[in-house]
Amino acid sequence: MISPKVAVVILNFNGKKFLEKFLPNVIANSVGHQIYVADNGSTDDSIAYLKANFPQVTIIEIKENCGYATGYNIALKQITADYYILLNSDVEVTTNWIEPVIDLMEKDQKIAACQPKLLDFKNRDEFEYAGASGGYIDKYGYPFCRGRLFNTLEKDSNQYNNATEVFWATGACLFVKAKALWEVDGLDDDYFAHMEEIDLCWRLKNIGYSIYVEPRSIVYHVGGGTLNKLSSRKTFLNFRNNLITLTKNHPSGGLIIKLFYRMILDGVAAFKFLLDAQPKHFFAVIRAHFAYYYMLPNTLAKRKKLKQKANFKFSRSFTYKGNIVFEYFLKNKKKYSDLDGGFFSE
C-alpha cells in the first residue's frame, strides 16, 4: 500500500523567534514528510534565517501579509500532497504526532479534517484555548471546545481522550485532505484571520464530510503569536467573521431570527467592554457589524455558490442546541462535561 503524501505547512509572519524555538522540533518529529514555510511578507529576517539554517525546508515567499486564509491559499496551491497539515509557527509537536491522525483519516474517506489534542505550551497539563480536544458551536454560532468554554480552560486528565466527530477542528494544527479542501474552494479569503477554520469545517460538513479530533496526537500551542487576546483587531475579526460564518452556512430556517438574537448578544458584549474600560473593543464590535453589513452581498453570493456543490445539504450536526452564553454566565456551567449531552444535534 502506497503511503499518502503529507505536507507540513507553517505560515510565518515576522515569527523568527518561533521558528528558532519550534522548527527544529517539527523537523525532528516529521521524518519522511516535506516541510514548507510559507512566509507572509515578513519584515524581520525570517527568510534569511531559514535559508542559512534549514536547507531541507521549502520556502514559499508571499510578497505581503495576506493573513491566515489567503496566505495558506496561495501556498497550498503550490504544493502537491494528499494531506496538508496547517501548522502555526508557535506549536511544539511531539513524537508520533502525524501518524495517528493520518491513520484515522485514511480509514474513513468521509473525514475531511482533523486535529490533535491541543495543550497549552506554558501550562502543559491544561487545554489550550484555540482548539483543546475538538470544537463545537452553539445555536447562535458561539464556538467552544471539549476542554474550553469561553476563557475557562480545563486541566487535561485524559477525560477527552477518545477520537470522535466534532463540529470544527483548530486552525493551529489542522490536518485536511487536499481533495476536500479544494472541493469547497479553499479557505475564505475574506476572513483574513480568525474563525476561518470553523467556516471551512462547516462548508465541508455541508457537502457531506465529517470533522474529527484524534487525541492520540498531542501538540502544545503558545497561542496569540500574531494577535493576542488583548488586541481590538482580534475582537473585530472574531465578531465580524462569526456573523459571516453563520450567514454563509446555517440552514435558512431560523437564520434571520438567530442573527437578530446574536446581534443583541453582541451588543451586550460591546457594552460590557465599555463598562470594563475597554473602549477600543467596544468600537471593534460596532465596526465588525458595519463590516458585516458591507460584506453581506458577497457573503450571500458565496452561500448561493456553496449550495450548488454536489451532495450539498446544510448541516447542523454536532452543534449544541442550547445557548452557551446562558449556560456559562447564568447557569455557571464552566466545563464541557457540565453541558447536557442530549442537547447536541445528531
Quick take:
The chain has 346 residues and is an alpha/beta fold.
Molecular structure report:
With 346 residues, this protein is an alpha/beta fold. It has 2 domains: 6-221, Spore Coat Polysaccharide Biosynthesis Protein SpsA, Chain A, CATH 3.90.550.10; 232-310. 38% of the residues lie in helices and 20% in strands. The radius of gyration is 19 Å and the shape is globular. The two termini are 34 Å apart. The mean pLDDT is 96.
For the termini, the CA-CA separation is: 34 Å
Major sheet size, sense and barrel closure: 9 strands, mixed
**Over all CA atoms, what is the radius of gyration?**
19 Å
CATH class of the largest domain: Alpha Beta
Number of distinct helices: 10
Structural class, by secondary structure, is alpha/beta
CATH topology grouping of the largest domain: Spore Coat Polysaccharide Biosynthesis Protein SpsA, Chain A
Q: What would CATH call the architecture of the largest domain?
A: Alpha-Beta Complex
List keywords for this structure.
346 residues, alpha/beta, Spore Coat Polysaccharide Biosynthesis Protein SpsA, Chain A, two-stranded antiparallel ribbon
Write the layout of secondary structure elements.
Layout: E1 6-12, H1 16-28, E2 34-40, H2 46-53, E3 58-62, H3 67-76, E4 83-88, E5 91-93, H4 99-107, E6 111-120, E7 135-137, E8 143-145, E9 148-149, E10 152-153, E11 164-166, E12 173-177, H5 178-183, H6 196-206, E13 210-221, H7 232-249, H8 255-275, H9 279-307, H10 324-329
Parallel strand pairs: 1-2, 1-4, 2-3, 6-13
Antiparallel strand pairs: 4-12, 5-13, 6-12, 7-8, 9-10, 11-13
